[in-house]
Structure formats: C-alpha cells, structure tokens
Amino acid sequence: MELTTEQRQELKDVQDIRATTRRPVVAELEAAMHTPIPVLDHGFVRVVDYMGDDAAIVQAARISYGKGTKKVSEDRGLIRYLVKNRHTTPLEMCEIKLHVKMPIFVARQWVRHRMASINEVSARYSELDREFYFPDPAVMGLQDTKNRQGRTGEVGDQVATKILGDMRSQCDAAYDRYKVFLDDGLARELARMVLPLNVYTQWYWKIDLHNLLHFLSLRMDSHAQHEIRVFANVIGDLVAKWVPTAWEAFQDFRFQATTLSRQEIEYVRGHLTGAWQLPGAEVTLTPKEQEELMKKLGLSKPGS
Ligand SMILES: Cc1cc2nc3c(=O)[nH]c(=O)nc-3n(C[C@H](O)[C@H](O)[C@H](O)COP(=O)(O)OP(=O)(O)OC[C@H]3O[C@@H](n4cnc5c(N)ncnc54)[C@H](O)[C@@H]3O)c2cc1C
Q1: Which of 20, 97, 104, 276 would suit a FRET pair with 142, their CA atoms being 20 to 30 Å apart?
Q2: One-character DSSP codes across 263-281
Q3: How far apart (Å, rounded) are the C-alpha atoms in residues 110 and 230?
Q4: What is the 214 CA–ligand 1 centroid distance (Å)?
Q5: C-alpha 247 – ligand 1 centre gap (Å)
Q6: Where are the beta strands (DSSP E) in the chain?
C-alpha cells in the first residue's frame, strides 16, 4: 500500500485536527481515524468519520432527553436484549464512514450490500493506477469440488510461482494497452475496458451499525471469499473499538450463534430426552444434514 507524498500530507492534515464537540467521542476509534489500515497488497480501510457509540444505542432505545445511560451493567443488559431480540432500529442510530481501497472483484461482492451509501472513484474521470491484486501463494487454493464457490488446499509453491508470473505479465500487458489507448486519445471510460478485475478501485462507504453487522455476519463468515473476508475482519476490529458492548452482543447472539431448523431441533431434543429411542418417534436427518448439525454445534462426526 503506497501513498503519494501529497496523500500522506492530506492524511497528516486531517489527523492533526482537534475539535471540541458535544457529540459522543470514542477515544479508541478517534485514535484509529484517518490511519489507513493495510489490507491485501495495495488495499486499505480508513475511518473517515463516525456518529454515535454504545451509549447512543441506549439513548435511542430509551428515547432519552439526555445521554440515556444508566449503570454500565444496565446499559449492557439493554444492548444485549436489543441484539438478542433483533430490535435493531436503535443500532441504526450509529453510523460510520470508511474510505476503502480494494480490487474490483471484491468491490463487486461488496456492492451487493445495498443498505449503504457509496461514492466510488470514477475511472471515466481519472486514470487508474497500475495497481493489481496478486494473491499470496499461501491463499492460492485449488478449486473445491464440494463447495463449488470455494477453494481448498494450496496449489503449491511451484504452480503458484508460475501462475503469479503469468498473472503479472497479463496485467502488465493490459495496463500497457490501456495507456496506449489513452495516448491515442480514447476516452478513459472506454480505455478501461481492457483492465482486469484485480485492478484496484476505491470508495467512500457509509453505513449504519445495524446494516454493518449484517454485512460483517456474511462477509466475516468462513463461506465468504478470503479477499473480502480480510476487509471484513479489519472492519470488525474497528467496530469492536467503536461499540464494544454491541460488538460483544453481536458475537454472542449473531456471529458465534447459530440457528437450528425445525428438524434439527427435533433431532437434538430427541437425543437429549431419549425420545428418539421410542418406536416411531425417531426423527431422521440425512447423513449430510447430520454433518451440518454437528458442524453447527462445533462437533465432529463420530469416528472421523
Ligand atoms: C457467501 C456468499 C455467496 C454469495 N453468492 C452469490 C452469488 O453466487 N450470486 C449472487 O448474485 N449473489 C451472491 N451473494 C450475494 C447475496 O445474495 C446478497 O446479495 C448479499 O449478501 C447482500 O445481502 P443482503 O441483500 O441481505 O444485504 P443488503 O443489500 O445490505 O440488504 C440488507 C437487508 O435489507 C433488506 N433489503 C435490502 N434491499 C431489499 C429489497 N430490495 N427488497 C427487500 N428487502 C431488502 C433485506 O432484509 C436485506 O437482508 C453471495 C453472498 C455471500 C455472503
């Protein structure tokens, strides 16, 4: 992640700003503001602004005239109650604005989260930099045959080196061609067509806490693609600093929690009460469903 001297100066200028305010301020997030956190080879996440804190959630839930907070334990209990029972509108009172730089294929997954405001750099207006994402060999997996959307294992050092070399020359050739088109006077909006999906883009992204937690629950999940998951993890760390109590509740009731289907509940209940041993009372799950249930419960299949 390289920044130009001008960009560095711009960051220093905003980092130096000091203001007195009546707004809630979260010291830990303030300290992180305007510092780009590197993600992947050229990407970053930077906190530009935020509104609200844990207390703002409580304040909205209590429709308070003042700060709305009571004892720490009562506030924590209320936030946990809200998150547990999906009473989510008080969480929408908190918002965060991030500056994110990511490869276009990551942006394409990210943009599916519609409940956010985005302003992306225009490749019609500005020339894109010669910045491409190349994966670390350690995350260069093979096509997973079971999970068709995923990867598994590693392609191995030798194959990774060959593929990376090919990727680099392909991207260089594409960028050289892009430059030739620009030199020929072709409009930027057309010249960009030859650039691959791993070229970097950037945007400002503003979202409220409720929708952000939804985004994180999907994109920090192990099913999400590695390249978006690493961004989500960095944002998760920022949220933990920003609203620690809401984050704890999110971990307990959403992210590390699970839902069981009606059949799974009957299966577990049957096992716990011994009812499944009664003739005709057994609820059957297919072996695949049983495996899924074991996974949800953090157990491995007997004998495996
Ligand atoms: C692992 C994974 C794999 C995926 N694979 C694919 C894929 O192969 N192909 C593909 O196209 N997408 C894929 N997606 C994207 C996915 O289908 C969703 O579009 C994405 O996760 C955004 O979720 P969302 O709509 O809940 O979020 P948001 O757009 O942020 O919406 C948040 C919530 O707001 C509400 N909402 C927003 N807009 C509407 C609306 N128009 N109508 C009703 N309610 C609305 C819904 O309750 C929604 O849950 C994948 C996502 C993940 C996490």
Answers
A1: 104
A2: HHHHHHHHHHHTGGGSTTT
A3: 12
A4: 10
A5: 22
A6: 37-39, 43-51, 95-103, 117-120, 142-143, 151-152, 200-208
Q: Does the CB atom of residue 211 touch ligand 1 within 6 A? A: yes
pLDDT range class, residue 4, cuts 50, 70, 90: confident
Residue 230 burial (CB count, 10 A) = 19
Among 230, 236, 233, residue whose Cα is nearest residue 136: 230
The pLDDT assigned to 303 comes to 55
Ligand 1 pocket, residue 225 CB under 6 Å: no
The pLDDT of 145-173, averaged and rounded, is 91
pLDDT band of 294, cuts 50, 70, 90 = confident
Relative to beta strand 117-120, strand 95-103 is: unpaired
Q: How far is CA 210 from CA 199, 216, 226, 245, 270, in A?
A: 30, 10, 23, 14, 36
